[in-house]
C-alpha cells in the first residue's frame, strides 16, 4: 500500500568518486529524484561531490553541501525534518551512517523512516557473521569456516573441509594478511607467522579461488513478489575482484539447473531479509559440480545494478523507488515509453552485453598491476551485440582510447611473461588471452592456466579467424560485411589495409549496405515498447529512425579514467539538459555503463557504441543532427569529424586553435566569459598546489582569491583583458598569474577554463556556466545574467581533489591533476 505519510525524503549522496564508485550512484539518485517528484514527494539531497548532477537539479534550498558523516547527517535531519532518509544510493558510507543512527535509536526518536533497505538487510551489510547466519537461515550453502586458537585446531578444521584453505584475520583491520594455503607445508609455515602476541586467533576458511564468479540482481515488493532482473557472468574466476573482471550478460556457460539454483537462492535471501527494492548477490560456483556458495549480499545500488539496468533496459531505479514508497510491482505505472507489463516481467534478452574494465596504471605506474580480490579498475566500457564475439570486440574497442581504432599488441611479451600473466592476471587481460591464442596455445591448457571457461577462448579464436580474413582479403565487400557482424570497426579495417576510412565506407555504401540499430529493451521484442536506447547491428530491420529536424548529438567520454572524466560525464549530462531546454531533440553516444549522461531521463535517445570515427559517422548519417557537441579535450577526434562532415561541430570547453605554452608556476587566476563584443570578468581564483605552485600539481581551488587587494585586482583585470583581446579567444577563458617573492604579480599564461574548474565556477557563483556556453554556441546567449553577477560574494568556495592512492595501497605525497579521481566541495563565510 502506498505510504501516504512520506511527504519529504532526504537522499544521502555518495561523496567524491572513488574506485568502485564513479557516477552510477549519482545517476541512480537523479533517477530516484525524478520518480519521487512524480509521486508528489519533496526531495532533499546531501552531498559534497561538486560533480553531482542531482545536487544541481534539486532546488538550492533543498541541497546540503556537507561531508557525509554522522555529525553532519544528524544535523541536517534535525534541521530539515524529513519523513524518511534513503541511504541506498550513497554507497557503504551512507549505509554505515544509517546503521549508526538506527543503533543509537536516533531515527526512532526523530520519527524518521529508512526507505530502500530493511533493518535486517541493513545489519547484514559488511557483517560476515550476520551474513553467514542469514545464509544458513535461508537453508543455503555457506563457505565452511571456523575461528581457531592454535595450529592444532587449524589442522583439525582443514581435515574436515579439505585444501585449499584461506587463513584470514577475524578483524579486517588486523595486521594478519589473507593467505591461500594449498597443502600442509604452506599451512604450517603461514600459521607459524600468524599466531603471535598480537594475533591469538584467526579464521580458517575453505578457499573458493578458481570457482566461477556469478552475480544475480533481483527486486522484491513488500508483498513478496520477486523477479530476477539480470544474471552476470564474470569471465575471470573467483580470486579476481568482480569489478576488475570481464563481465558478460546474460549468463552464457551455466546449465539450466545451475542457473535456477542461483535464482532460487537469490529469492530466498531476499525473502529472509525482507528486501523491498533491489538486492545484488555474488556466488562462487564449482565448475566440476553443482556446488555453490553465496559470497556477498549487497542490498543497495552499486555498479552491478547499474550494469544490469543498462544491459536489460529494465527501469530498475524507477521501479525500486516506487517499491520503497509502498507500491506493488503490479501497481507501478511506468513512463509511457514502457509497456504496462514491463515492471512485473523478468527481462529476457535477445542481445549480449560485455563489460571490460579501465585501469589507472598509465597515470599511476607505481601501483601493482596484479589483479586480486581488491578492486583496482577506475572505470569500464560495454559493448552490445547479437553475439558474444560482437559484444566483446565492441567493448574491447571502447576500452582502448586510441583515436585510430587500433588495439594494442602484446607480441613483445616473451613466453615466460605471457604464461606468468595468464596464471597471475594483470591489466589488459583480454589482450593477453588473445595473444596466447594467436601463438597457438591450446584451449585446454589455457583453461587450466586461467580458470576461464573454454567457451570464451573459442569465441576469441573466432575473432582471430575474422582478423585473418580481413588481412587476406583487403577491400572486399563480403569481408567487410562479415567483419561488421563480429564487431570490427571501419577504422580497424582502414588501418589494416592502410587506406582512408572513407574508402572502407564507400565500398559498402555503394552496395547500399548501412548499419541498422536495435533497441536495448527487456522483452526480446515480445512487448510493444518505445525504448530509445540502441546498439548497432548489420541486419535488415532498423529500429531507430531520425529523431527530428532539430537534433543535437552529444558525444560522451566513454569509460571513466583518472583525471577529469567524472567531471566530463557531469558536463556531458548538463549539455544534454541545456540543449533540451533550448528545444533540441537530444541524442547521446556513450559506452560507459555507469555514465550519468546515459540516464534515460536526460536525453531523448541513447546509442551505446564505441566512440570511434566510423561509429560516430554512422549515427550522424542516420540522425542528421544540426549540431554536434564534443565535451572534453579531444583534438584528434574533432579534426577527424571536421574532415569528414560539414556539420556544426563544437568542442566544449571551446577548442582554442592557438598553441599555448603554459607556465610552470602559478598562484592565482582570473576567469572571464568572452564574447565577440565583451570580456566579462567573473571571479578571481586561488590555485593551490602542494608542490611549489607547480601548475601540473594544482588540484585544490578557492574562489574568490581573498589575498588580493582591490587595486591589484583592478590592475590584473585590465592586463588580462589586453591578453584576451590579443588571443581572439571566446568562451570561458582563464588568465594565469604568479606572485613573485617581492609580493608583485606577473601575467604568466592564458588557457581555456578546464572542465573541472567550469563546474567549480558554477558552484561558486550560482550561475550554470555550461548553460551559458551552450546558449552562446547556439546563438541564444543573453548577457543580462552576467551583467547582474555579484562579483563580491560573502562566501568562499573551495574544491579539493581526491586520489585513489590509499585504495591502490601506494603512497604518493603530491598527486597531480592527471591522477585525480574525484573532488570535495565546501562553502564557508568570509571572515
TrEMBL record:
Gene Ontology cellular component list: cytoplasm
Pfam families: CPSase_L_D1 (PF25596), CPSase_L_D2 (PF02786), CPSase_L_D3 (PF02787)
Membrane-crossing segments per the record: none
GO molecular function: ATP binding; carbamoyl-phosphate synthase (ammonia) activity; carbamoyl-phosphate synthase (glutamine-hydrolyzing) activity; metal ion binding
UniProt KW Nucleotide-binding keyword: yes
Any GO BP: pyrimidine nucleotide biosynthetic process
Coiled-coil ranges from the UniProt annotation: none
Catalytic activity as recorded in UniProt: hydrogencarbonate + NH4(+) + 2 ATP = carbamoyl phosphate + 2 ADP + phosphate + 2 H(+)
Family membership noted in the UniProt record: Belongs to the CarB family.
Protein name, entry field: ATP-grasp domain-containing protein
Organism for this UniProt entry: Apilactobacillus micheneri
